[in-house]
Amino acid sequence: MRPVGEEDLAMFWRFSTEPGLIGLDWGGFKDHQTTVRRYAEDGFLGSDKGRLIVQDGHEATGFVSWGEGSFDGKTKYWEVGIALLPEYRGRGIGWRAQRMLVDYLFEHTPVHRIQAATHPENQAEQRSLEKAGFQLEGVIRGAEFRAGEYRDGWPYSRLRTDPVR
Rounded to whole angstroms, what are the CA distances from 139 to 43, 66, 113, 158? Predict the structure, then answer.
């Protein structure tokens, strides 16, 4: 993994403008200049959210992201995500990147909980999260509106005190 560089903005543009590139996670067209502005502001390394590029050798394969959340308004957790270009899926890159991101966040921030969510039909991501040390917590019914309908979400978490497998 590495910090985002200006050369990576074209990949972010693809993720925001090619509907099939990330399946059900695509939420419609967005202002790509938001990405450019965010990169200019802090290089995607803010105190409350960030992104890192996932690499295989010297090639950018996608990115991991994190954002701050809280259930009670004072205890913080990170919500993490990943987006890989289709040609790099199924190679074990995703779960390794997610594990590296979690290790990085536990090492450099004081949070106790890191969570992620996926769709019930995304079995590859479920396996990836489990390999990265996450545990399924249940089902959040009707959690989001995507592709014209309300869809369930499957929340996963990893706590700082969880044993690493």
Answer: 34, 21, 18, 16
pLDDT at 113 over 80: yes
Residue pair 140/152 in contact by the 8 Å Cβ criterion: yes
In contact, 100 and 108? CB cutoff 8 Å: no
Give the per-residue pLDDT at 69.
96
Cα–Cα distance for residue pair 8/12, rounded to 1 Å: 7
**H or E element that contains 38:** helix 33-42
Rounded distance between C-alpha atoms, residue 46 and residue 14, angstroms: 23
Q: What is the pTM of this model?
A: 0.91
- Determine the pLDDT at residue 164: 77
Burial label for 123, CB within 10 Å (0-12, 13-18, 19+), is: exposed
Asked if pLDDT for residue 148 goes beyond 90, the answer is no
